[in-house]
Design brief:
Elements: E1 2-4, E2 7-9, E3 11-14, E4 23-27, H1 38-46, E5 50-54, H2 70-77, E6 85-89, E7 107-111, E8 125-127
Amino acid sequence: KVELMGEEVQVLDAVPLSPPVHTVVLLHGRHSTSESWLKTARELQSCGHRAIAIDIPGMRHCPPRERSSMVLSLLKSLNVSTKPVIVSVSTSGKHVQPVLDTDIIQGWISVSPTSPPAHPSTLPLLLV
């Protein structure tokens, strides 16, 4: 668990044995938890990537919080020093949109988005 925006939240942090090739942040959808990413996180870890999944504040186990600072707070709390790729499912994409035009993330993969970005971003973006 880690403190995120004043609340303790469940975290799955799969760190490879050697320095990670990339860091991938996995955000679950509305009716699931960080545990839904367990198999994916282990696979990413076995390929040399650091995979981080959290229980998003406001979904299931955590109380609601402001979405605009959630990603920033998460990266600080977990000492993520490289720009991560973020994978979001469904409604969790709303937590990524506030940081699209910043230089803190490397890219965004949005699976079954409920609210695609309203404006083009300079980031690599994949909507699946």
